[in-house]
């Protein structure tokens, strides 16, 4: 990992979040052109550090896809993606 990369990314997320009255992981994923699962990863990291609060959580229905399939299709570096697995019926 490049030194300072994590902090720089977190600051970019925080700057975007601060400019919005409310924001969803999908909004962040679209803004940063990243899969929603990656946005959730960084959001949970920020929440663990006490830098943001997550005010709402929603369950994913049995027949629902957990994030935007188009964004998830660009997910790289993972051996398995819950969205792709669900669309194939293997999740």
**General form:** globular
| Count of alpha and pi helical runs | 5
Q: Which percent bin holds the helix content?
A: 40-55%
User: Whole-Å distance between the termini?
Assistant: 31 Å
Query: What is the total tally of β strands?
Result: 0
Low-confidence stretches: none
How many separate structural domains?
A: 1
Oligomer, anyone? single chain
Structural class, from helix and strand content?
mainly alpha
Radius of gyration: 14 Å
In short:
The chain has helices spanning 5-18, 25-32, 36-48, 69-72, 82-87.
What does this structure look like?
The chain is an all-alpha fold and 91 residues long. It has one domain. Helices cover 49% and strands 0% of the residues. The chain is built from 5 helices and no strands. Helix 2 crosses helix 3. The longest helix is centred in the N-terminal third of the chain and has 14 residues, at 5-18. The protein is globular, with a radius of gyration of 14 Å. The model has no long low-confidence stretch (mean pLDDT 80).
Name some characteristics of this structure.
91 residues; mainly alpha
Please write out the topology.
Elements: H1 5-18, H2 25-32, H3 36-48, H4 69-72, H5 82-87
Helix pairs in contact: 2-3
């Amino acid at each position: 990992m490049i030194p300072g990369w994590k902090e720089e990314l977190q600051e970019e997320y925080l700057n975007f979040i601060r400019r919005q009255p409310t924001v969803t992981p999908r909004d962040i994923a679209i803004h940063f052109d990243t899969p929603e699962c990656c946005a959730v990863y960084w959001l949970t990291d920020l929440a663990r550090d006490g830098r943001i609060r997550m005010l709402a959580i929603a369950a994913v229905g049995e027949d629902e896809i957990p994030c935007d399939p188009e964004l998830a299709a660009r997910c790289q570096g993972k051996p398995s993606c819950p969205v792709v697995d669900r669309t194939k019926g293997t999740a």
